[in-house]
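Hi D.,

Good news: the full-assembly prediction came through. Inputs first.
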Amino acid sequence: MLLELKDVRKAYGSLVVTDGVSLSVTEGEALGVIGPNGAGKTTLFALITGAVKPDAGAIRLDGRDITAMPAAQRCRAGICRSHQIPHPFETLTVFENLLVAACFGRAMREAEAADWCVEVLALTGLLAKANRLGGTLTLLDRKRLEMARALATRPRLLLLDEIAGGLTSAECEALVGTIRTIHAGGTTIVWIEHIVHALLAVVGRLTVLNFGRKIAEGEARSVIGLPEVRDIYLGSPV
Amino acid sequence: MALLDITALDAFYGDFQALFGLDLTVGRGETLAIIGANGAGKSTLLKTITGLIPARREAVRFDGEPIGGLPAADIMRRGIAMVPEGRKLFPSLTVEENLLVGGWGRKGSGRWSLAALYELFPILGARRNSPGTALSGGQQQMVAIGRALISNPSLLLCDEISLGLAPIVIRDVYACLPSIRAEGTAIVLVEQDIVQALAVADRVVCLQEGRATLEGRPAELSREAIQHAYFGD
Amino acid sequence: PGVRAASSIKLGYVSPRTGPLAAFGEADDFVIKGFLETVKSGLKLGDATYAVDVVVKDSQSNPNRAAEVAKELIVKDAVDIILVSSTPETTNPVATQAEIEEVPCISTVAPWQPYFIGRQSNPADPKSWTPFNSTFHFFWGLEDVIAVFTNMWGQLATNKSVGGLFPNDGDGNAWGDANVGFPPVLAKLGYRLTDPGRYQNLTDDFSAQIAAFRKAEVDIVTGVVIPPDFTTFWTQASQKGFRPKVASVGKALLFPVAVEALGKAGHNLSSEVWWTPTHPFKSSLTGASAAEIGAAYQQATGKPWTQPIGFAHALFEVAIDALKRSADPKDAKATIAAIGATSLDTLVGPIRFGQETVPPFARKNVAKTPLVGGQWRLGSDGKYQIVVTDNQTAPQIPIGGQMQAIA
Amino acid sequence: MATLFDILVQGTLLGGLYALFAAGLSLIFGVMRLVNLAHGDLIVLAAFLILVLARALGLHPIAAALLCLPAMAVLGYVLQRGVLDAVLGRDILPPLLTTFGISIIVQNGLLQAFSADSQRLSAGALETASLPVGGGLAIGVLPLATFVTAVLVIVGLNAVFYATPLGRAFRAVSDDPATAQLMGIDPRTLFGLAMGLALAVSAIAALFLGIRANFDPTIGPARLIFAFEAVIIGGLGSLWGTLAGGIVLGIAQTLGAAVNPEWQILSGHLAFLVVLVLKPRGLFPRAGE
Amino acid sequence: MSILASAERVPAERERHYRVATGTRASTIAGLLAALVLAGLAALPLLAGRGLVQDLFTVFTMLALAQYWNLLAGFAGLVSVGQQAYVGLGAYLLFGLTAAAGLDPVLAILLAGVGAVVVAVPTAFVVFRLRSAYFAIGTWVVAEVFRLVLAQVKSLGGGTGMSLPREVTNDSALVRLTAELLGLRTAAARDVASYWLALALAAGTIAFVYAVLRSRRGLALAAIRDSETAALSVGVDAFRLKLQVYLVAAFGTGLTGALIYFQKARISPDAAFSVLDWTAYVLFIVVIGGLGSIEGPIVGVAVFYLLQDQLAGFGSWYLMLLGLIAILVMRFFPKGLWGSIAHRFDLSLFPIRRHLVPRDGTATHPLSSQGGDHD
Ligand SMILES: Nc1ncnc2c1ncn2[C@@H]1O[C@H](COP(=O)(O)OP(=O)(O)OP(=O)(O)O)[C@@H](O)[C@H]1O
Ligand SMILES: Nc1ncnc2c1ncn2[C@@H]1O[C@H](COP(=O)(O)OP(=O)(O)OP(=O)(O)O)[C@@H](O)[C@H]1O
Ligand SMILES: CC(C)C[C@H](N)C(=O)O
Ligand SMILES: [Mg+2]
Ligand SMILES: [Mg+2]
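Then the structure:
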């Protein structure tokens, strides 16, 4: 088991955002996470990456308890995420954005890191913009950069938060292709996405959150067909 | 006379030109959808109308008066409201205060009041005293829409309001558009989700690299025409 | 006319012109202008006539800046003598630079202890104190102000309980020092001193001190306090019903405006008096009497006279006198020797180095000028006048009235 | 016991003074994220203005302060629109340096105009009046009035901030000026109003500063650090916090002084550090900080 | 090791077509010039008068302070208003170690830097709990605490202060060596020795800061400044990095403080911990020159020095002018003088930006660095 969450709980004041969620991700799989707005999906990522500390429960990586491990260290242990709202390093070039990630997220030497970054840039379609400043990118490119930067840390577990929102259908297809490539290379993926058809093109398993609780989990197509998922999330059949 | 009349509009970010001699009108009570690929200039267009990006005075007319390049606050007080891309709630205001602040110093009276908004989005009523930014993305989008509506604008600008929303919420948000239109409010809808946009719009304009490449009624436009207008070839 | 430009004498003058101590420097322009007028046709030293120039530098009331401008005067302006005035915060950094550079330096308007002891490398250890080679100072010392204060107090019937306000700065530490300051002398004279401790300047609350003074039933308040702090203290004391019979305070009550700021509560406060226009002294440069110079100041500036006028003037007197006696006015060593041998009657009284009135360790560098005590009296015109009320320490200075208890 | 009581009372009253110095600072800190290094000097400027008005028109300083209040408000508005607006931004340094510039200009301008002499506003009997509270203790009327005024100012500003549309607009602008414009709010006008309000408050602070003790052109910066400490202890943008911060500081100082005057200022600073080590965002942090 | 499928290894050959470049032509020329200037400056005391040497001493020490402050505020985002804490600490350590413990001043200056770091470690754990404005005020308060505590140390002069004895200022081995070497009076030799120390300090500081910025750490610092959240999530340990910068700045500032006070030879708590002299003016220099660049403080110190040298005689008018300049520069050149020049002419003498450039002829993609290009 690559990642395991056990009864993880997080509350902001009286608002319980993650209410005893348990979750396992096996090495090499691709898991989708869906749920209404405010269900606690992004918070779940924050808990896994260590940006937010849980009130209770345990988080394990490779069976090792990492609940108290600081965020930066978890990254070096192989967990990296993209942010729902992109946070590019605005005064750094796209290439440098990736270089930071490669140097610190995976402690590579700079020369080695540079080669690796070129590879990731090419994969994510950002190579032509390598020397542009992060702050000048369009929304689409910012999202690409989020993913590319996470990828530059050579994560074993890649967490993607709403990476397909705001894309045209063609762009979306291209993105799905890229994510499949990454997955095929052996990276484990957990993907939060509201664009359900894109999600289904990649993930095999789906977890549904509502009000901080896991309400359904299983093989993607069958979960999507559940009536309760339709009622609280989809509104209509896909 | 059109409510909003845009003629030969150029827009710049420093040296970079984002809009090229754009012409566009929005009639009273009309819903116009603006579509186009990423970076086509849709958000730029809205920012220029609202005065966040400078424009030639005569290039934008609202209610017959030239407003191009006026300070944003002046423009918005004339009866334009905007739901900005990325929601942009005020973190130190509660949900209710976020809604109320939308009515600051603006004219316009009509259907939209706090009570009416809580009816439209019941979850906001329940969390009226939480800080606006403690809400989830979808809830925040509702606040952003409510905040714009509360001034009862005659023109409502929406920048990608379905971005990041659960399918069921998108449906709800779009479901509320007819009741907004019913008040006689004209709407300019910038949207990636073409299907949604075409379903509610009276008219569609497609932008490509800062120029309008297509215009027409949804029913009249073929899939191929849109495809072509989007990406050129 | 007749001045050979080739040989000129340059005097450097450092004082606080801006910043919190600027009140001390207010009379400088007047004094320097008068001095330049006096020497405008050159200074005859031996066979040669020199043009005299004064390079004025502002310390900005900042010790760092004072050291910097001193260095500038030495290396850039190549001045022949540095003159510096007003509080240890100004005199000490300047004199320190001059000492290192072996340039003659004359200073004043700081009691000699904070000047001499404050410049030692270990002020706490008297055995380590050493004299200076090229820097000289004239003013009075703590022993004088203590004598003046106790003489004034002796004129009134009190319970001999004294409260001390000593800040943690150059003056305050010297005045409150257990060896050279007020405490030992007061003890010897039978006074009980309550000293709550060194406070920081610009303190907003003196209730702790007031409580301590009340507990000790203090009749007499003394100390060396900056003007805003004294106002805070005095106002708060009145509010809390603490009314001593005497308040003799250094520094706070030097300038008429500072006393006026106290309103009616300034009446009969007492202070040390180092110079007034009634002092029976004359300038060795111009022959003008103290009264004449005081009147000229009022006429030139429209402001009442202040005590630093006399001392700023005397700095120039000592410098010119030394230059005249110097074997070679352009040679620092010769001029230093001449300053050390000064014996001159000036506007602030006689100035002589090496006198018995100064302890042996400081004798070489320090000369003392007379000090008396006075009280501020509110006149019928609503203006304050300082009246000399005790001259036992310097009988040549006439008395203007007797000590009165604060109402 | 009586002394402890006295210490606490004196400390609280002193806290009122600090809170009054800090109120205007807190306000513009809260609205514009402006660290105003000139705040102390502007208070001194107001004090001189009161002095001039009182002398020229033969007024009691309180009356003169009432005249000075609108003048300072206008000055604040003009200063904000004319100078500070242009340098406000994400970065705190340009406004920091600009207010440093204003600080030395005001200081030295006053020095040129009024010389270094120390001045005082004379308020006659009010200066020394006191109320006996038993046990031989007395409370000065002036410190009490200072404290009460500080509380009233804070109550007033708080009401404006949290119970009026203007206050909402202030907070919205402070969060995100660009989006606030989309609400029809003109940030520049609001910032101008905020600075006007802050300087009006500083006129009140100046009145008490001037009656309480001497002032001269250079005395402004000395209390700036206490005002900042009060603001920060309380939590940025919280006006009640500023009052609480002032009181914490005041009591820490009087307690320290009771042990030994050497500890007076030091204990205030140490209290500040202790509070912040325990609560790094102050006692009453604002949401979303 | 690649996470990409082995089938995708083919395009990985691509990396061979690019290399990373940092320098610019301007920077190469600047490097050569710098070496020449440095040599010239080192030889200067042989040619120039004491006045110039003295002025340059001040300039170099202020420049060193400015570089360290810039490292903190401009590169690590730690806007401290309390660096006078370390100037004062370094200065007091110098006085304590020489006058009391009898060490040679040059050694004492080095130890003063070390001492500053030792004190900075516990201090960091207090101030690092605070952010932005809280941090700024917090550091200021800490510096005040240092001042008030040292004002209680009677053996270092308490609130009165103390002066260095002549044996300390003039009998250092370096001063004696200089005097012999150049055949100078002791006082002049002391100036020259201090000058060389200051020159070494300023040049060494710039070289060091530049090296840091070009390293991975420099990159990470920029990332933290842009978004700490994102930096953390890609494995940058922001706390540790900022702590390192803070400690380095404390070391350099303490060292510089000791050197400054070796020259002043007199210390008092108010002077050594002056927020005006050691932070406000330094802030002025850095921000006027241009925050976040190495060139900025150099330009700033030149402006500051020229103003002071030419105009300080005008008293309060000079200070008002200084204030006015601060306001005007911030109004019209918010990035500082150098920042505006660099922006206008796209100039960088100390380039740190890494560009990906195609190896000649073989690249598959043209790379552009324009803000708004499309593909
Ligand atoms: N702040 C800016 N500085 C420079 N260029 C910008 C800026 N904002 C946008 N641009 C450029 O202007 C062009 C139009 O951008 P705009 O944001 O209007 O696109 P859009 O149609 O809204 O795209 P999206 O669907 O991604 O929101 C793009 O090429 C973009 O790179
Ligand atoms: N810092 C915070 N303080 C208080 N409440 C918070 C905070 N962050 C998130 N919340 C609340 O936690 C809940 C879950 O938020 P989260 O962002 O995880 O939702 P999500 O499932 O990612 O939603 P979306 O699909 O809209 O992105 C929401 O109700 C939100 O209001
Ligand atoms: C300059 C001064 C501080 C003089 C001395 N301290 C006095 O009380 O008069
Ligand atoms: Mg989310
Ligand atoms: Mg857009």
